[in-house]
Design brief:
The protein folds into five domains: 1-47; 54-154, Phosphorylase Kinase, domain 1 (2-Layer Sandwich), CATH 3.30.200.20; 157-342, Transferase(Phosphotransferase), domain 1; 355-648, 6 Propeller (Neuraminidase); 650-916, TolB, C-terminal domain (Neuraminidase), CATH 2.120.10.30. The protein is built from 15 helices and 56 strands. β3 (87-94) and β4 (99-105) form a beta hairpin. The longest helix is centred in the first third of the chain and has 20 residues, at 171-190. The protein starts with a helix and ends with a strand.
Length: 926
């Protein structure tokens, strides 16, 4: 028998092994009728499950369990990563190329199973024939004793199934995953390979990298021209090759199939990503198979209003029962998905153009914009019952960056806004609703606060020193032009609004660790220990609205002129701006009649949108959007038109591990935030928010070597114990409740509830005490010392210290703080007056870490063009040296923050976020 004939025989045997015994004879009759010798040989192989010598000449003996430290050839086993019915996967180190790899081996029970060995070999061959970024890369195959193994790239991330267990994906993310998968399938189909088992378990979402298609174990090669098609038959009673919920109708019926079967499966996966449920649900595999063959899926738009009509058509075309009516190639499907993903985001069809805009719309660029407008019409669904027409949207900004604030001018036709475009400082611009152009007002770097009915602006001029903001100056500027007239200078965040007559101001700012409202300016009517922002005065001047953050839960508060609370609406998650912008805007605005407050909010773990809160405390929805994006409400005109900003963001956790030179992104899902390093820099603790973290948020632990993240429990990550055995977390909804989560074996421990909220936390050396910034009702923010397990904490600083950032000396005897009020200071745990670090800017920089020898502090500051600078400052002499400069790869809407490092400087982590927004004029909200 020639090598070619033997390979053909092996393929035939592989097919026969997938059939029950009573059906193999018919297959051999059809394929070996002219070669009785071949049939006899195949029958002998089929009758013996051990099939010694089939894959190669080595004997097949049951392999022993693989132990850590053992070598498989040149690969040293480091740990087991996963175990399933068809194999075990280990992490190993290849010291020849100095890289970590994944090794898949057959378990001992399958080492004598010819079918399992054939599937194992077939997967290796398929992967070797498919070099592509979206397909798992195979490096090597081999045998060690009785163990067959395959060596592949080591992936970090999660399977799509693990991601779907937390809910459906944002539309943009789902489209991107499907487009990448289609590109990988196109390469496989080009080589004549059909996967046959595409499902969420076999798609891997790498951390910060491409989607990977896994498991070609039941793939087959499409017959070449002139040969019969490969039929798929039942392998056991009531089962077929593949996974029931994702196979095509022809695959479910056991008929011949080709590459279009994979397209159907990908359509089913995309449907589930968008809808949050399978396209063909069923309590049993048989029920799912019946649904695939006989039933149509629920229309996608019903389950996912955010999906555009175009996207819904793509999905349902993939799921057509007739292969001839599906996409005829994965390349075509990928092209359609990529075109959809690349369309600029917009809200809905624009208002009818004026005469001037009609001329502009003839250009190709604006014609492309119209296509984008039509596309995004399907992303946002207006869901208020009883409204006959959806809102109408007109895009106002077209540059890449972040819109901070926007207001209508008194004529209602002109809009003034502040934005940071392409990484530049904030600047004031003006635009008209009948023009796509914006022009700068020619003022120094500033943000917009408010515009009075008399046509006068309140702006915050950004004061800077050496490229770093050291505060702002509140100033008045006439819309007609003129120089800014300063009113008030400060460093801490501040929000202001005009009274209706344009004569006076309402002011929200920080005073002695508390947030207070003055209305009118100089008369304090309200105080709060909780972070507060975005103050607005009612049209009649008889009430105010403000956003507050008790226990990290966004709350909308309506006050009367005397500061009495009229209504309150809580239960909302953080806006994306809260961890990114020093002075967030875009939460609230009064409705034209002044009877209710419209506000932008996000449900914890998911849905974002616009809502209305009446003075009686009732809440109703105005507009809802899917997770993964958000709306900000910037202003409402007297006729009900609104200025909205659609916000997109991307998070990264950039880590340099001990002994490494390069950074890597170790973010897990889309909401990875608040990173913390272990003392030795080997472990990363972080919070997973947004949809991936769920309503209670999630605490994850991940090795800085890039190993997969492990979910420890609910909550917000705070600190890792000095011995690395415990992670400290806080409830996402109750900021006074702390938990200890074991990083290894053990049970979680709930600590006694505290009488104060908890913010930034340090675990002191020795492991028995915590240092944290927090607040008690009526006492403002300060630093506390907590003995773990105690029911209360001891205050260490006066209220005015208002600590927001902390760093502890190596021996735990001193700590450094920073606040908006007093800048950086050093305190002793033994008591006494604080000291100011020598040579430190009073407001513009903050402590990050104490050097290991205790003689220097690492201090951070952020420049106006969003560079993040870290200096090492000698505490005796004030001498400083630049230790590190960080700059975002994409400057548009970039924000680097929450930097953490080890005391020896060998490892560090920082969060990075690109926050990009687009301004829209909206009509029809009711």
């Amino acid at each position: 028998m020639t090598p070619e004939e033997w390979r053909a025989a092996k393929d035939l045997l592989a097919e026969a092994l997938e059939l029950p015994a009573d059906r193999r004879a018919a297959l051999l009759d059809s394929r070996c009728g002219d070669d009785p010798a071949l049939r006899h040989e195949l029958e002998a192989l089929l009758s013996a499950s051990d099939s010694d010598g089939f894959l190669d000449s080595e004997p097949r003996l049951p392999g022993p369990a693989i132990a850590v430290g053992e070598f498989l050839g040149p690969y040293k086993i480091e740990k087991k990563l996963a175990e399933g019915g068809m194999g075990e996967v280990y992490q190993a180190f290849d010291d020849r190329l100095e890289r970590r790899v994944a090794i898949k081996v057959l378990p001992p029970r399958l080492s004598r199973d010819a079918s399992a060995l054939l599937r194992f070999e077939r997967e290796a061959k398929a992967l070797a024939a498919l070099p592509h970024p979206n397909i798992l890369t195979i490096f090597d195959v081999g045998r060690h004793g009785g163990t067959a193994f395959a060596v592949t790239e080591l992936l970090t991330g999660a399977t799509l199934r693990q991601r779907l267990d937390r809910g459906k994906l944002p539309v943009g993310t789902a489209v991107d995953v499907a487009a990448q998968t289609a590109r990988g399938l196109a390469v496989a189909h080009g080589e004549g390979i059909v996967h046959r088992d595409l499902k969420p378990e076999n798609l891997f979402l790498t951390a910060g990298g491409p989607v990977k298609i896994l498991d070609f174990g039941i793939a087959f090669t499409v017959p070449r021209a002139g040969l019969s098609a490969v039929p798929l038959r039942l392998t056991a009673e009531n089962t077929v090759i593949g996974t029931a919920r994702y196979m095509s109708p022809e695959q479910a019926r056991g008929e011949s199939c080709d590459h279009r079967s994979d397209i159907f499966s990908l359509g089913a996966v995309l449907y589930e990503m968008l809808a949050g449920r399978p396209a063909f649900p069923g309590d049993t595999p048989l029920a799912a198979l019946h649904a695939i063959v006989e039933l149509d899926p629920v229309p996608l738009g019903t389950l996912c209003p955010a999906a555009s009509p175009h996207l819904a058509r793509i999905v349902h075309r993939c799921l057509d029962k007739d292969p001839a009516r599906r996409f005829q190639s994965a390349s075509d499907l990928a092209f359609d998905l990529e075109t959809l993903a690349e369309a600029p985001a917009t809200l809905a069809a624009p208002a009818a153009p004026t005469g001037r805009r009609r001329g502009l719309l003839r250009t190709g660029a604006v014609a492309g914009l119209l296509l984008a407008l039509a596309f995004l019409a399907g992303i946002f669904a207006h869901q208020r019952l009883g409204q006959s027409e959806p809102p109408r949207f007109q895009r106002l900004t077209f540059r890449r960056g972040y819109v901070h604030s926007a207001r209508f001018t008194p004529d209602g036709q002109t809009i003034v806004y502040s934005a940071a475009w392409n990484g530049k400082p904030y600047e004031l611009f003006t635009t008209r609703i009948d023009s796509p152009e914006s022009r700068s007002l020619g003022l120094p770097p500033a943000t917009l606060q408010a515009i009075s009915q008399r046509g006068e602006m309140l702006i915050s001029l950004i004061r800077e020193r050496d490229g770093t903001s050291v505060g702002d100056t509140l100033a008045r500027v006439p819309l007609a032009g003129g120089a800014p007239r300063p009113i008030l200078e400060a460093y801490q965040p501040r929000w202001v609004d005009w009274t209706p007559d344009g004569e006076s101001l309402a002011l929200l700012q920080i005073d002695k660790g508390q947030f207070r409202i003055e209305y009118p300016r100089g008369k304090v009517i309200w105080r709060s220990d909780d972070y507060a922002w975005d103050l607005r005065v009612a049209p009649a001047g008889d009430a105010l609205a403000v956003c507050s953050l008790p226990g990290r839960v966004q709350t909308i508060v309506i006050l009367d002129r005397a500061g009495k609370v009229l209504a309150r609406s809580g239960g909302w998650g953080d806006l994306p701006i809260m961890s990114t912008q020093q002075s967030p805007r875009g939460c609230i605005a009064w409705a034209p009649d002044g009877k209710e407050v419209w506000f932008a909010a996000t449900r914890p773990g998911g849905e974002s949108g616009l809502y209305a809160l009446t003075r009686d405390g009732e809440v109703r929805p105005l507009l809802r959007v899917p997770g993964g994006q958000a709306l900000l409400l910037l202003d409402v005109a007297r006729d009900g038109r609104a200025l909205l900003a659609q916000v997109h963001w991307r998070n990264a956790l950039m880590v340099r591990a001990p002994g490494e030179r390069e950074e890597r992104d170790l973010a897990w899902f889309e909401g990875s935030i608040l990173p913390v390093l272990s003392v030795d820099g080997r472990w990363l603790l972080f919070t997973e928010g947004e949809e991936g973290g769920g309503e209670r948020a999630s605490v994850y632990l991940r090795g800085t070597d890039g190993s997969p993240a492990v979910r420890l429990g609910d909550g917000v990550a705070l600190a890792i114990s000095p011995d690395g055995r415990w992670a400290l977390a806080r409830s996402a909804t109750e900021a006074n409740r702390l938990f200890l989560l074991p990083t290894g074996a053990g049970e979680p421990r709930a600590l006694p509830p505290l009488p104060m909220t908890v913010l930034d936390v340090l675990w002191l050396p020795g492991g028995k005490q915590l240092l944290f910034g927090g607040s008690e009702p009526g006492k403002g923010l300060r630093v506390y010392l907590l003995n773990i397990g105690a029911k209360t904490a001891h205050p260490l600083t006066p209220t005015e210290a208002m600590a927001l950032l902390l760093a502890s000396s190596p021996d735990g005897s001193r700590f450094a703080t920073w606040s908006f009020v007093e800048g950086a200071k050093i305190y002793s745990l033994a008591g006494g007056e604080p000291s100011i670090p020598p040579g430190v800017s009073p407001m513009g920089e903050w402590p990050i870490q104490w050097r290991a020898d205790g003689r220097a502090l690492y201090l951070g500051r952020r420049t106006l063009n969003d560079r993040y600078l870290i200096d090492e400052v000698d505490l005796a002499t004030g001498r400083r040296a630049r230790w590190k400069e960080l700059r975002a790869a994409d400057p548009a809407g970039a924000r680097i923050g929450f930097f953490r490092m080890t005391s020896n400087g060998e490892a560090y982590v920082y969060s990075s976020r690109n926050l990009v927004s687009t301004l829209y004029l909206t009509e029809g909200l009711r």
